[in-house]
Amino acid sequence: MKKILGVTSLLVIMILGSCVTSPDYPIEPQIEFIGFSKSELEQGSLNNDSLIMVISFTDGDGDLGSPPETAEKNLFVVDNRTGEIYNSFKTPEIPEEGVGNGVSGEIRVLMFTTCCIFPDNIPPCESPDLYPSNEISFDVHIVDRAGNESNIITTPLITLLCD
Question: What distances in angstroms separate CA 84 from CA 9, 59, 140, one per listed residue?
Fold first, then answer.
């Protein structure tokens, strides 16, 4: 009898130990910059060069992403040279699962190049010898389905090769 009670107790402890507690994330998404796939881009206006930006995320209520039937974008990238939206993206919907819906993961974003910006009224995307490169960084944030905005992250500088 003691042997059965011991085995039963061990099984109960193993089952309870294998239960996963839901993460304790805030309901507002939180993001963190992980990296770029490269540090330089050739300037251009026709998507002739690209890189991949990787960010991590957490969200306490797990309502990230847009449903497939909507065109609503929820990841925003701002060009810090101009303060204007560089691009916006629609991330796939993360299905809500179970009682604890906290989620975490990584988002990989394909970002195409842009034009160099010059002083002295030189048109963008030119190749003046005086300005062989530009530096660009981005502010990035996401919005969940409830409208909660994440923190804003600023990426490291990327070199745009202007020639």
Answer: 62, 26, 12
Here the tokens at position 119 are 């002083």
Provide the pairing of β-strand 40-42 with 158-161. Answer: parallel
CA 161 to CA 163: how far, in whole Å? 6
Q: What is the CATH number of the domain that holds 69?
A: 2.60.40.10
For 50-73, what is each residue's pLDDT tens digit?
A: 999 999 999 988 888 888 888 889
Q: What is the pLDDT of residues 122-139, one digit of tens each?
A: 999 988 899 999 999 999
Q: Is the dihedral of CA 141, 144, 147, 148 positive or negative?
A: negative
Tokens 């497939």 belong to 68
Residue 14 lies in a domain: no
